[in-house]
Every structure is written in structure tokens, then in C-alpha cells.
Design a protein that fits this description.
Elements: H1 4-41, H2 48-64, H3 69-92
Helix pairs in contact: 1-3, 2-3
Length: 93
């Protein structure tokens, strides 16, 4: 026997997960373009000032949304590190 309440919760979670994947894909398309731009203009792959500003911004948004800011920072740091890795690869051609 299936618990209908749990089934509805899980369906909502599945929908949210799908949206997150689509948003991350779109974000990485944009950051790939940024990496290519940086590579052609000689800009550095990393921008520590921008990264710290984004992390601070995300922490504020997390607090407002009642989401653990530590989790949000770890999540964004993971994304930033991956983006920088892609940017460095673009610079190496």
C-alpha cells in the first residue's frame, strides 16, 4: 500500500530537483561564455572579490529564506570551484 501523502511530497521534491538541474544547466551555460570571454580578453579565471561578494549575498538570501547559510556557502563554493576549473581549461585552449 502506498502512502498518498508521502507520494505527493516526493512528487514535489522530484519537481524541485528537476528545476534545480535546469537552473544549474543554464547557469553553467552562462559561466562557460564568461570563461571563453575571459580567455580571449586575458582576464584571470578567478575573481576572488566577486566570489566573496556572491557568497556574502547568498548567505544573506539564505538567512532571509530560513536556509542554513553554511550549507548555502558550501553549495556556492562547490559551484564556484567548478566554474573556475572550467575557466582555467578555457584559457589553456
Amino acid at each position: 500500500m502506498t502512502d498518498d501523502v508521502l507520494k505527493r511530497y516526493r512528487k514535489s521534491i522530484d519537481n524541485i530537483d528537476a528545476a534545480l538541474v535546469c537552473l544549474l544547466a543554464e547557469r553553467f551555460k552562462i559561466t562557460q561564455a564568461v570563461g571563453e570571454y575571459k580567455a580571449t580578453t586575458g582576464l584571470p579565471a578567478a575573481d576572488p572579490g566577486r566570489e566573496e561578494a556572491q557568497i556574502a549575498r547568498l548567505r544573506r538570501l539564505s538567512e532571509e529564506a530560513e536556509l542554513d547559510p553554511e550549507f548555502s556557502e558550501k553549495f556556492l563554493r562547490f559551484i564556484i570551484d567548478e566554474v573556475i576549473r572550467h575557466h582555467r581549461a578555457a584559457q589553456q585552449g
